[in-house]
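Re: [ENG-882] Designed sequences occasionally contain unexpected residues at chain ends

Forwarding the minimal case from QA. Structure tokens:
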């Protein structure tokens, strides 16, 4: 028998607030899972009508407190911006556009902001700019993480000789075509299995329960835009952290995130934050959730699930592409770059570090920083620089908007650029053409105090989304 409470039933009895619905789901699944849905609804009506009678109840007291505040709403709080902005460090300032700096300076006037940094690939975005790092006091900014939660890189260094790319070019291209899927709709033609789909969070929160089917369908796929899966050649430096001999290796590199799951989580909790954290108009997208609130705890859990799902997608992408080729990974490196982490600064302060398009770079932490479809990617080791909040760039960064990139490049012109670089593109659009990006060499030189390169990867066969 299905004892679950449906959203339409909660709406009918006056539970229209997302936070209230989430609390009901969490608490009733834990404490009232053996009673019928009709009985659950009766209890919920009583809580709404006489909340003061339930305030001390260990199980439903949190729900009752919502109604004491008034009419099933979390009482919104209004905040003013500080006249003294938190400190900001900009790396490669001559590569960073004015819009990104302006957006970051605004974020640093939030009363929760402690410290900020802009990476040399930074450019304007929504909420925080792309390439921004922000440390906050016990607060999460959903738009400070972005729509593609857990967007990440993964590099597999393979047990194949230097000549493999030339000898098996047909098989490599065929595997990229048949074992990947890009874009907003559809999925792979063969079923995917991964333990992330059994995570109990998918059953504990109403939003995640509704998204489970989409997560199943999109597992092992990639998004559109600048997401890619590509084969290439990596040269590892002497004394690299992977313990592999300095040499040239075939490698598989991928870039994508948490798909529709992460986007839906971002939309839901951004709306909750903006409804309950009232800021001046120019800063509305920077509304936050307190980590001690139930909404903050839910978002933290959902964000981490989206991160695990993004990791699972890369697991499946690399497995699916490499299996037909019979290749094995000698080493794997991966990292998130749209995420938030709990961390501690050198003065002992505990903070939440948001990285929206930035690579974690604690001391000796490995990461991957890509260029473009014709420019190299770098395997790097973090140097643990606190002024950058232990972070580095997440790529070359856009030099042109998508519209400008389309207007400034023809399809035949892009084909010539690819041919000159010896790169085969499967899919892709002119708005991702190499000239739309900053010079990755200059970006790397601008962050020499943040990361140390341990290898250089050159793409050869690139698979991307095509409109």
């Amino acid at each position: 028998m299905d004892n679950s409470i449906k959203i339409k039933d909660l709406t009918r009895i006056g539970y229209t607030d997302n936070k209230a619905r989430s609390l009901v789901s969490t608490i009733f699944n834990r404490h009232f899972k053996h009673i019928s849905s009709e009985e659950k609804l009766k209890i919920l009506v009583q809580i709404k009508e006489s909340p003061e009678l339930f305030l001390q109840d260990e199980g439903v007291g949190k729900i009752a407190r919502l109604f004491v505040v008034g009419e099933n709403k979390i009482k919104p709080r209004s905040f003013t911006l500080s006249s003294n902005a938190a400190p900001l460090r900009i790396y490669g300032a001559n590569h960073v556009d004015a819009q990104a700096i302006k957006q970051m300076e605004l974020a640093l006037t939030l009363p929760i902001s402690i410290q900020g940094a802009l990476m040399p690939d930074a450019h304007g975005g929504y909420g925080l700019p792309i390439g921004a790092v922000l440390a906050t006091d016990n607060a999460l900014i959903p738009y400070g993480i972005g729509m593609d939660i857990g967007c990440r890189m993964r590099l597999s260094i393979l047990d194949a000789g230097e000549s493999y790319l030339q000898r098996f070019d047909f098989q490599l291209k065929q595997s990229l075509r048949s074992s990947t899927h890009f874009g907003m709709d559809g999925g792979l033609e063969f079923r995917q299995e991964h333990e992330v789909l059994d995570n109990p969070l998918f059953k504990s929160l109403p939003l995640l329960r509704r998204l489970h089917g989409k997560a199943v369908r999109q597992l092992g796929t990639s998004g559109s835009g600048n997401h890619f899966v590509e084969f290439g050649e990596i040269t590892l430096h002497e004394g690299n952290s992977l313990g592999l001999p300095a040499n040239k290796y075939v490698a598989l590199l991928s870039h994508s995130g948490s798909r529709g799951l992460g986007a839906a989580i971002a939309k839901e909790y951004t709306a909750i934050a903006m409804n309950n954290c009232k800021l001046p108009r120019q800063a509305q997208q920077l509304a936050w959730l307190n980590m001690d609130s139930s909404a903050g705890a839910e978002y933290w859990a959902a964000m981490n699930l989206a991160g695990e799902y993004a990791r699972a997608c890369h697991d499946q992408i690399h497995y699916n592409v490499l299996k037909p080729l019979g290749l094995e990974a000698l080493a794997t490196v991966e990292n998130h770059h749209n995420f938030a982490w709990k961390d501690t600064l050198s003065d002992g302060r505990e903070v939440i570090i948001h990285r929206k398009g930035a690579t974690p770079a604690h001391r000796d932490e490995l990461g991957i920083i890509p260029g473009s479809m014709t420019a190299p990617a770098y395997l790097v080791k973090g140097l643990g620089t606190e002024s950058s909040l232990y972070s580095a760039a997440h790529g070359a960064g856009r030099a042109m908007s998508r519209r400008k990139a389309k207007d400034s490049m023809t399809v035949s012109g892009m084909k010539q650029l690819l041919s000159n670089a010896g790169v085969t593109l499967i899919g892709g659009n002119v708005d991702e053409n190499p000239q739309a990006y900053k010079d990755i060499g200059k970006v790397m030189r601008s962050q020499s105090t943040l990361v140390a390169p341990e290898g250089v990867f050159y793409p050869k066969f690139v698979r991307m989304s095509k409109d």
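QA comment: On inspection the terminal residues look reasonable. The two ends are 45 Å apart (CA to CA). Proposing we downgrade this to a documentation issue.
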